[in-house]
Amino acid sequence: xxxxxxxxxxxxxxxxxxxxxxxxxxxxxxxxxxxxxxxxxxxxxxxxxxxxxxxxxxxxxxxxxxxxxxxxxxxxxxxxxxxxxxxxxxxxxxxxxxxxxxxxxxxxxxxxxxxxxxxxxxxxxxxxxxxxxxxxxxxxxxxxxxxxxxxxxxxxxxxxxxxxxxxxxxxxxxxxxxxxxxxxxxxxxxxxxxxxxxxxxxxxxxxxxxxxxxxxxxxxxxxxxxxxxxxxxxxxxxxxxxxxxxxxxxxxxxxxxxxxxxxxxxxxxxxxxxxxxxxxxxxxxxxxxxxxxxxxxxxxxxxxxxxxxxxxxxxxxxxxxxxxxxxxxxxxxxxxxxxxxxxxxxxxxxxxxxxxxxxxxxxxxxxxxxxxxxxxxxxxxxxxxxxxxxxxxxxxxxxxxxxxxxxxxxxxxxxxxxxxxxxxxxxxxxxxxxxxxxxxxxxxxxxxxxxxxxxxxxxxxxxxxxxxxxxxxxxxxxxxxxxxxxxxxxxxxxxxxxxxxxxxxxxxxxxxxxxxxxxxxxxxxxxxxxxxxxxxxxxxxxxxxxxxxxxxxxxxxxxxxxxxxxxxxxxxxxxxxxxxxxxxxxxxxxxxxxxxxxxxxxxxxxxxxxxxxxxxxxxxxxxxxxxxxxxxxxx
Length: 635
Prior knowledge:
Elements: E1 6-8, H1 12-21, H2 26-33, E2 34-40, E3 50-55, H3 57-69, E4 81-86, E5 93-98, E6 103-105, E7 109-111, E8 120-123, E9 126-129, E10 132-133, E11 140-141, H4 145-153, E12 158-165, E13 168-170, E14 180-182, E15 209-213, H5 216-224, H6 248-254, E16 262-267, E17 274-278, H7 286-294, E18 304-306, E19 309-316, E20 333-335, H8 345-363, H9 377-388, H10 412-423, H11 428-450, E21 452-454, H12 455-459, E22 474-476, H13 477-481, H14 488-497, H15 508-515, H16 524-532, H17 534-549, H18 571-580, H19 585-589, H20 596-613, H21 627-630
Parallel strand pairs: 7-20
Antiparallel strand pairs: 1-3, 2-3, 4-5, 5-6, 8-9, 8-19, 10-11, 12-19, 13-17, 13-18, 14-15, 15-16, 16-17, 21-22
Helix pairs in contact: 1-8, 1-10, 2-3, 5-7, 10-11
């Protein structure tokens, strides 16, 4: 797996759920190999919650290999791919050539080179060709030079990106008792929908992680020894690394006023003492890394087992790909992962399942399979890459999606599994599981819509049920559950207790339905989320449709991009808009780091301002509120 022995997170966890919905195996493997599970943003609304799991690295590798070796119709050849076989007349791909000169013929090929494409590792001022270090030795894995030269020969647009991995620490030398612990969630939330009932395999062997922080001394060392950091090939020597997962040096440099930065200490497995210090990457010389580590509370006597390092590698401008991830200039050739300019294990896997599906469809001369931005985060990811490109390692966040209220981690199977069934990539087991979940959700939502009480009777159940008189005499359970502080367990209890007395029970069958009402754990999160966002979804859909129709509207030249006029925009977005001064909404949407949420806000601002300026009073207007902003209280 990747350098970080974890799966998921905000946005990334959504991708893993979508991969699982299409019958990819990542979710099932982490459910069997995970030793720490948590639902991030659990105190916020369903749209931005994200599952994350810490893996036992050895166990993950073992479970993944076991699943792959038993996978029907999959044949694994262990070799280094050195070149492509192309048809001289059509330039269509026909297979690959291994380093040993063996030819493997194929109608389609997927390239997923990770950090190996002309990879170079950096440790201090020393650099050496490598894709990465071996985990259990001082050896390195060699880079992929042949494929880089092939892509260069085929005139693919290539550039350089970098990433970093922190040092591995000896857990026996960490003062765990002085640190704040983070236990796993109980029960641990599984990734795979197929495991919603069974749960995770290692539930009786879960570990605790811990957190600590850098301090002023850490920051002094980081800046004092910056002259010992590498000179990279890209970024005019500074390298082009991930903006949203920066090295410790970049964090200290970028935020000089911040007194500390969070470090998570994550054990790499049940049978190893290795610890991964999440947030401490930086390719200083080993002796400097040791000084930095020992400046941090709880690690005053910590020993480094293996120093951290950076790796720089080639990537292909993803704008040279189609939405199927097929290369525009070579039919049958597909790219996925870091070769397309993304970060992370999850983004790579999301592209991999789409590229793999389309490689199979291409070999059968069938139409490509693509996902829209309204269908999944996988669709958002690929559309961003192939239409906008990227000039830094791309990371998925929920803020990149226009439809985040409906693109939740709890409902990926409802959105995507039928799409997978339609093209033949989903198993019978998952098909039956989808049918079962769909039926149970429909039954629960029907009951919530059927049951109603007078407004005053709801209010008698507690302060959270209080409503304004203008909200009508009767309210359904679905209406009431959409209120911010009302929970599904409260509603279930009220429906049961009022089964006999409610006027909405028209028959003995209704009274029995209400008295026995329950929402199974298999669908609980989805029923609650569907209810919470019941009114917002329609409003969001309307806003997005209006934005799509009007994205060529001109932006007034005298707009001031500041917090006074655009309070929900980030400082980075305001700076970008001020610098570029886009003339139309479409032009603003093409700018890097401008999110769909920002585009909707800007769209509403421009329309409201235009309406006010055309009115006789020419009243001064502030940025109008958005439905999505109003919903932030339940995010």
